[in-house]
Amino acid sequence: MIDILVRILINAVALVVAAKVVPNIHLTIGDTPANWLKVAIVAIVFGLVNAYIKPIVKALSFPLTLATLGLVSFLINAAMLLLAAWISTEVLKLHFTIADFPPTFNGDALIAAILGSIVISIVSTVLGFVNFGRRAVF
């Protein structure tokens, strides 16, 4: 249970850092606990999208991944971030937008999603190294 909460916290921190670093990623971050609860819900949505939908998309795109030598992975990560933004904004009515997406998908949204997914990957990796959890450290 604690491991899941730590992963949600890592995702939330990564999303906040991406919202602060990438100019076109808009996430409501405030001083009130309600705003931080919204960030946690967006982090849960992002974690669920990455846990359940991303493996299916990666398996289906494996031939394309081989043909592009892995560069399509950037687009898959960006698509998962855009999907999390769509679910958060349109379904859950939380304010998480990437450029004007949702509802408008344009080049700015794609570039911001690619940059955001890179920032999220770096922050998650660094915080994952810090998180020892229940692993034995020798």
How does this structure look, described?
The structure is a single chain. This protein is globular. It has five helices and two strands. Helices cover 71% and strands 4% of the residues. The model has no long low-confidence stretch (mean pLDDT 89). It is mostly helical. A two-stranded antiparallel ribbon has the order 1-2. The chain starts with a helix and ends in an 8-residue tail after the last helix. It has one domain.
Task: Give a short overview.
The chain has 138 residues and is mainly alpha-helical. The chain is 71% helix and 4% strand.
Class based on secondary structure composition and strand pairing: mainly alpha
Topology order in helix (H) and strand (E) letters: HEHHHEH
Biggest sheet record: 2 strands, antiparallel
Q: Which percent range fits the helix content?
A: over 70%
Q: What share of the residues does DSSP label as strand, in percent?
A: under 5%
Mean pLDDT: 89
Radius of gyration using CA atoms only: 15 Å
Termini separation comes to 24 Å
The total of helices stands at 5
| Shape descriptor | globular
- How many domains make up the 3D coordinates? 1
Low-confidence spans: pLDDT under 50, at least 5 residues? none
Beta strands, count:
2
